Known about the structure:
By secondary structure, this protein is α+β, with helices and mostly antiparallel strands.
Amino acid sequence: MNTVNVVGAGIMGLASAWRLAQRGWQVTVFDRREAIREASWAAAGMLAPGGEIDSKTLLSELALRSLAMYPEFVRDLEEETNLTVEYRECGATEVAFDDAAFTALTDKAARQARIGIPSEPCRYSANGSDFPARRYPDDAIVDPLCVNDALLAACRKRGVAIREHETVTEILAGGSGVKTEQGEYPSDRVLIAAGAWSSALLPGLPRSWPVKGHMLYFDMEPGLLNGIVRSEGVYLLQRDAGGVIVGSSMEDAGFDREIAPEIVTDIHRRAAKLLPALSGVKPADCWNGLRPATDVGPVIGRVDDTNTWTAYGHFRNGILLAPVTSAMIAEQFAN
Ligand SMILES: Cc1cc2nc3c(=O)[nH]c(=O)nc-3n(C[C@H](O)[C@H](O)[C@H](O)COP(=O)(O)OP(=O)(O)OC[C@H]3O[C@@H](n4cnc5c(N)ncnc54)[C@H](O)[C@@H]3O)c2cc1C
């Protein structure tokens, strides 16, 4: 049987491990912490090309393909694990609070229409006022914690070995295995899916670095929000049980993980403009996570003609891009 060592038990490492195990690979996944404790745990779960993309790039193509793959990805995961994955094709509303924002939103919508992201004008009411907005019917939501739990269960069911608290310190020559503090693990192939830490593992890879984002959680009654609502860098969405998730900041702060109260306050203030019910309500929780950024977009594929592959650099869209990335890795491994 062919063997592969995967570095990183985030959504990229686990989704790829699952798809490879389904195709008969014997997979071992290593993580320096517990599985799913970094960006993939921190994410909101928007599947929202409408909020993220307005030009034709590799990212836009992957994002639209992956969005289309999501229903089947969720169905496969649910069938494999008997777990429920909270996924909703609910659309998004993007609100303009002033004329300049409205012009920017209209221009963006025209660019997006040319690359296959539809939207239509609408109105948005908050605090007794009515604002111009656009409705993006195709944007969707998934609960990343459900996806992650299901991926872990699916991996275990397929016999994937998950070695937590074991840091990979070196990729062996040509991708012939990995070295950790506990020993050497030879394998036929290696997949580097270590998020913001990826490029440190192998000289010559496109640089990856962390972009910190704060998230807030409010305990609310269900039914407050129908889909994603966003405006000027702030977004809100509601889980089925009622919890409202609000994000986020974009901070160049290295691997720092401190919660910054002034950033939490600022996000809360801007969110309450969109959903006045949040005014005066204390967040029940807040956290941050480290998005894996690169200069070149997602780095997915084989490293030269070695036996090392990569799947990292998904920045703000890794939850969205998991289906397409894992499918690409599985296809490339088959050839
Ligand atoms: C605040 C926030 C909100 C977000 N919201 C969304 C959203 O709404 N929609 C969306 O699509 N995306 C969103 N994202 C982006 C998404 O979370 C990421 O793109 C995605 O989770 C990246 O997954 P990953 O598996 O590459 O990285 P990670 O989840 O960071 O996983 C990498 C793993 O590698 C491990 N690792 C690192 N180095 C080593 C080593 N040497 N040895 C062993 N293990 C190692 C780490 O411990 C970690 O578990 C958000 C991100 C943040 C931070």
